[in-house]
Amino acid sequence: MPSPNTYVKACINGARTPDQHPALPVSPQQIADAALAVHRAGAKAVHLHPKTADGVDSLHPDVVGAAVDAARHGVPGLPIGVTTGAWALPDPEQRLRTVEGWRVRPDFASVNWHEDGAEPLAKLLLGMGIGVEAGIFHAEAAEAWAESEVAEHCLRVMVELGPDADTTVADDVLSAVMAAGSPASVLLHGVDESCWPLLQHAGARGVQTRIGLEDTLLLPDGSPAPDNAALVSAAIELLSR
């Protein structure tokens, strides 16, 4: 059985497109079904990328509202978060105005600290009553976040490392994050090749982690993952050893 302190968040789709995996949730109904499945598998929250019908990430209020509403109806009470990634809307001012127009508000939203306009966007989200997850991709971003006015008000800090990252890199960035003294929870995860090693390292370090089709399409043994729920189950089993 997993420790009651094991915190695994499900990242159910990411910026991936449906051609990359047949179970990648795109429509509101698919998102609701995936949220329920990962919750049953043990996920304590869901991070999703609202998508247009053709699978492209969008921050448009109607698209975000439909995705968040569906997930909430699928699993009432499960914390639901969304991306604010710059790839979905590159202009910082336009991104601010679009997020300001969200009528259905998620419980939290991730803000990548290396992207232009991160701090004003985080302040806007906090003012809207939306929790902020600071996405930290490297030590420089960690230091910039630590010096910001919102560091002490963030819900979570996600150390998000690339496929070539190892535990040494992870420890360096975690040290920079923890030096800030913020009360925010800390989460560590990798992507593709680094996904499973860093998930295990998160367990060893006693920090939160996440798993899902956003981060990997493969189970720990290298076989294709059938869906998000299978990845969550595998992660919890791995962290329980």
TrEMBL record:
<dbReference type="InterPro" id="IPR013785">
    <property type="entry name" value="Aldolase_TIM"/>
</dbReference>
<dbReference type="InterPro" id="IPR008567">
    <property type="entry name" value="BKACE"/>
</dbReference>
<protein>
    <recommendedName>
        <fullName>3-keto-5-aminohexanoate cleavage enzyme</fullName>
    </recommendedName>
</protein>
<dbReference type="Pfam" id="PF05853">
    <property type="entry name" value="BKACE"/>
</dbReference>
<dbReference type="GO" id="GO:0043720">
    <property type="term" value="F:3-keto-5-aminohexanoate cleavage activity"/>
</dbReference>
